[in-house]
Specification:
This protein has 345 residues and is α/β, with parallel strands linked by helices. It contains ten helices and 13 strands. It has a six-stranded mixed sheet, sandwiched between helices. It has a five-stranded mixed beta barrel with strand order 1-2-3-5-4. A two-stranded antiparallel ribbon has the order 6-7. Helix 5 links the parallel strand 9 and strand 10. Helix 4 crosses helix 7 and helix 7 crosses helix 8. Zinc ion binds next to helix 9.
Length: 345
Amino acid sequence: MSHALSHLGWDDTFASSYRPFDRPDAAPARVLRADRGVCTVLGENGVTRATLAGSVLLGAAQDPVNLPCAGDWVVTRRWPDRRVTIELVLPRRTALIRRTSDKDATGQLLAANMDTVAVVEPIHPEPDDARIERLLALAWESGAKPLLILSKSDTSRDPDAVARQLAELAPGVPVVAVSTRGRAGVEKLRPYVADGRTLALLGRSGAGKSTLVNALTGTAVMPVQATRDADGKGRHTTAYRNLVPLPGGGAVLDTPGIRGVGLLDTADGLDRAFADIAELAAHCRFGDCRHGAEPGCAVAAALANGSLAPRRLASWRKLHHEVEVESARRQARLTAAAGQRRRRS
Ligand SMILES: Nc1nc2c(ncn2[C@@H]2O[C@H](COP(=O)(O)OP(=O)(O)OP(=O)(O)O)[C@@H](O)[C@H]2O)c(=O)[nH]1
Ligand SMILES: [Zn+2]
């Protein structure tokens, strides 16, 4: 079953989580695009619009992260009047979630079930180290494999040198410089969108994500904004996120241009994004070393012998602090919300 869907990554694991919900009027589908209350989904019989069943809305009321999102695999149901509803979101294998600093303890789901999350950073104007580190931590946290794309490589005289330099910010992450201008184009990205594989693009507005999507599909499926001025920022932001199936199989998922990058959820993604520091810390004499003035601190030793850049450690400290503050805040909000529910009942 589902030959067409297997090109999009449908496999035995998704099929077995679907099986208990199978019935004559049900079918699996992948969400291409999620708008308020309505999703565009691709199933075995093509593209349809689907509204959300009550059970899905109920789950979303608890946490908006439960709403279907581009990339989700869902159980759809076709009603006698031909309406189609989404009855259930199948368990996500990976999820790219951006926590916001708004009052409720919620997050914004940007993409689901991608194999790779590419942080897209333009090579010009100068790449922003701190943004790259933060977005890579988000990418690691998603459970997918991170990738760093240096876009607009045609605007740099030596893109490979820049790539080598930035590789230090991205231990364990492949770094590729690509341009959508000229012949070499985006072919370096093909392995990440091979048959059955999904690549999500994450980056600031104007980074060139939509242009990459268009280059991969060979057609203009995403609107591209004219660059405003020398700051290289696009005029508008792509407001919606779209999963775009590619002609040769595989899919690419554009996320909205990130403005205020968003907060990290846990220290988990952070420790993987800063694997160099985590690795050093494992060699500190004390398990709870704060890498200050403690004796036997491997991090301090690496700083002293120059193998660890002070900027890198400062970055890591800043993000760690943010995670601590934010998780304390979220805990407080959750406790307050639970108290409110108790009072009401
Ligand atoms: N020189 C050069 N310019 C590029 C390249 N790719 C994209 N651009 C330009 O960069 C600008 C922004 O590109 P978009 O693809 O709209 O950027 P985006 O990341 O999708 O932006 P949002 O939709 O706001 O998130 C456009 O003017 C593109 O023409 C490239 O490879 N080389
Ligand atoms: Zn230490």
